[in-house]
Write a structure and sequence with these properties.
By secondary structure, the chain is α/β, with parallel strands linked by helices. It is 27% helix and 23% strand. The longest helix is centred in the middle third of the chain and has 15 residues. It is globular. It starts with 10 loop residues before the first strand and ends in a 20-residue tail after the last strand.
Length: 203
């Protein structure tokens, strides 16, 4: 390990990219094009630019096509066979993958369909890490959104409560007193790419 132990917390990026884009005619969101590249590549680039050296990417819908169609060197790709159950299963799969790797102090969770959230929001949320039981979320005009930082000591609890499309929402609500909100509305926009109209956000 050498000198790495004193460099501060190891915050791994966890990109949830399993969605099927049901309202987009079934195209996997990971492969929607943004600035000439698949969204999943863009989102990994944002996490890396925001300081996450290690990035685990949860794939689901058309995982084979995403593996073939996107260039994700150095990422840990996690297949979630239960992706259709919703975001909760993808979050569980990603946290399990990080736990198995055993090297991160926290997961910085982002969603593949939020290209308006860039490296600065990632950096701000990561910078609020204090300990392995940290809970930090970006806020947009005071309203909680992504990315969300989850300290390693909380992964089991978050995974246990992640069901359906809720992801970490139920856990964060139960522990709202512990959640540090970091305002990012001045540097990011938290729209989702869910409907054909939303495709106008892509460049």
């Amino acid at each position: 390990m050498g000198h790495t132990t004193t460099e501060g917390p190891r915050i791994a990026g966890l990109l949830l990219a399993a969605g099927g884009g049901r309202r987009l005619g079934g195209r996997p969101k990971a492969l929607l094009e943004h600035r000439g590249r698949p969204l999943v590549e863009h989102a990994v680039g944002v996490l890396r630019a925001g300081g996450c050296e290690v990035v685990h990417v949860v794939l689901g819908a058309a995982a084979g096509s995403v593996r073939e169609g996107a260039s994700l060197p150095g990422c840990v790709l996690v297949d979630n066979p239960d992706w259709a159950e919703g975001m909760g299963s993808s979050l569980r799969a990603g946290l399990a993958s990080l736990a198995a790797a055993g090297t991160a102090d926290a997961a910085l969770v982002s969603l593949v369909d939020q290209p308006g959230i860039g490296p600065e929001a990632v950096r701000r949320v990561a910078a609020a890490y204090r300990s392995r039981d940290a809970l930090v979320a970006a806020a947009y005009d005071g309203k909680r959104g992504h990315p969300v930082l989850i300290g390693a000591d909380r992964w089991a609890g978050v995974g246990a409560s992640a069901e359906g499309d809720r992801g970490a929402r139920a856990y964060l609500r139960e522990h709202r007193g512990a959640v540090v909100l970091v305002e990012c509305g001045d540097v990011a926009e938290a729209y989702d790419i869910d409907t054909p109209q939303d495709l106008a956000h892509l460049e």
